[in-house]
Write a structure and sequence with these properties.
single chain, 248 residues, alpha/beta, Rossmann fold, Arc Repressor Mutant, subunit A, 5-stranded parallel sheet, elongated, disordered N terminus, Winged helix family two component transcriptional regulator, OmpR/PhoB-type_DNA-bd, transcription regulation, phosphorelay response regulator activity
């Protein structure tokens, strides 16, 4: 049987398998684990969101027919808000279903029944490609609007205000990220230091979680205030807050 021994330069990818059929879920989880993958399981969209909130995965293997939310909707959410790989595993075999799956953001589309060894190798290869691809947003970082006014970080309200005074509420993780990047303005903060301060594991998964957090925060603030948030990617280093900021 093929397993991770065939891929000596690849650490075990973390997979979340989303399948509402309990027997099939347990069978697939056991089989994928036997191929060297680290597998967590979920029986619904809600359980998936809870899983990835605790720890981002490398790959999500997603059934379409879930009890609480349409799988295509989940796929679109994952593609828009995370950098995780996405494999759709479903009984729907029509061309229109496949097209809808890929349009929703799937990297791969498998039709049940599936050979577990084939699924495992496809998962490993996808995780490898994602791990070696350029960081999300590195080539697409928007330039902040030029302004002599500083951004303002309000610790009492967990919010940040743009130079034009527009406020954006931050989650705890987003707030901690901004604080970590602005303790020494203009200094590039090392990725390892950020992982430690934000309580991410110093692993491929943890690093991907950090990148996803930065990407989401950039999009959130741009949408709210109409200008790019000045977190810049510093190649082979980490991240830099590249604008004046005042902390209240």
């Amino acid at each position: 049987m093929a397993d991770l021994d065939a891929y000596p330069d690849t650490t075990a990818p973390r997979v979340v398998l989303v399948e509402d059929d309990v027997d099939l879920r347990e069978l697939l989880a056991h089989c994928l684990s036997s191929q060297g993958l680290t597998v967590a399981t979920a029986g619904s969209g809600l359980e998936l969101y809870q899983q990835i909130a605790k720890e981002p995965a490398d790959i999500v293997i997603l059934d379409i027919g879930l009890p609480d939310q349409d799988g295509y909707t989940i796929a679109s959410f994952l593609r828009a808000n995370t950098n995780m790989g996405l494999i759709i595993l479903t009984a729907r075999s029509r061309v229109d279903d496949r097209l809808k799956g890929f349009t929703s953001g799937a990297d791969l589309y498998f039709v049940k029944p599936v050979d577990c060894r084939e699924l495992a190798i496809a998962t490993i290869n996808l995780a490898r490609r994602l791990a070696t691809s350029p960081e999300a947003g590195e080539a697409q970082t928007l330039q902040p609007t030029s302004s002599s006014e500083p951004w303002i970080l309000d610790s009492s309200r967990w919010s940040i205000h743009s130079p034009r005074g527009l406020p954006v509420r931050l989650t705890a993780k987003e707030f901690d990220l901004v604080v970590a990047l602005t303790q020494e303005p203009g200094r590039a903060v090392d990725r390892t230091e950020l992982l430690e301060k934000l309580d991410y594991a110093n692993t491929v998964q943890g690093s991907r979680g950090l990148d996803a957090l930065v990407s989401r925060l950039r999009r959130k603030i741009e949408a709210a205030v109409g200008e790019a948030f000045p977190i810049q990617t510093v190649h082979a280093k980490g991240y830099l807050f590249s604008a004046p900021i005042k902390q209240l």
